[in-house]
Amino acid sequence: MNKTELNHFRKILLAKREEILHNLGKLKEQEMTSTVKDSAGENSAYSFHMADVGTDNMEREKAFFFATQEGRFLYHIEQAIERIEKGTYGLCHECAKPIGKERLEAVPHARLCITCKSNEEKKK
Fold first, then answer.
1. C-beta separation of 109 from 80 below 8 A
2. pLDDT for 15-70, tens place per residue?
3. In DSSP terms, which residues pair with 98 in a beta bridge?
4. Given this model, what pLDDT does residue 49 score?
5. For residue 118, how many C-alpha atoms fall within 13 Å in the half-sphere facing its CB?
6. What is residue 45's predicted lDDT score, i.e. its pLDDT?
7. Distance between CA 72 and CA 64 in Å, rounded?
8. Cα distances (angstroms) measured from residue 3 to each of 7, 72, 81
């Protein structure tokens, strides 16, 4: 892969990384820091209803799930950027053959060629 292509994929990966970090920041601000007391208001005259508490807990669990997924995606993006730095980006980890550019356009953090990825999926 030449320098122009590597720079192209680096820009894609860096943009995706920024997007993920932005999304994680929003999740942290919106869901992860709110409490049941925040939802009802500190001076509320009403006690907390079990259904409201359950809904709030479910929303926090969903936010945690999304944050976990984004964290995994961020890890794969970081690994791909590291492979660019090492000069191994675009080579399959399994068979060491080049990963198709079409695949890298669709999944820029791919570490397996389409054949090896298909074989991996069949094993699961």
1. yes
2. 999 999 998 888 777 765 555 555 555 544 445 667 777 777 787 788 788 888 99
3. 91
4. 67
5. 4
6. 45
7. 12
8. 6, 27, 14
Domain boundaries, the chain: 3-88, 90-124
| Residue 46: how many other CB atoms lie within 10 Å | 8
51 or 10, greater pLDDT? 10
The two three-digit tokens of residue 1, written as one number: 């892969």
Q: How far is CA 92 from CA 56, 103, 114, in A?
A: 44, 11, 9
pTM: 0.74
Q: Which residues of 85-117 are buried (b: 16+ CB within 10 A; e: fewer)?
A: eeeebbbbeeeeeebeeebbeeebbbbbbeebb
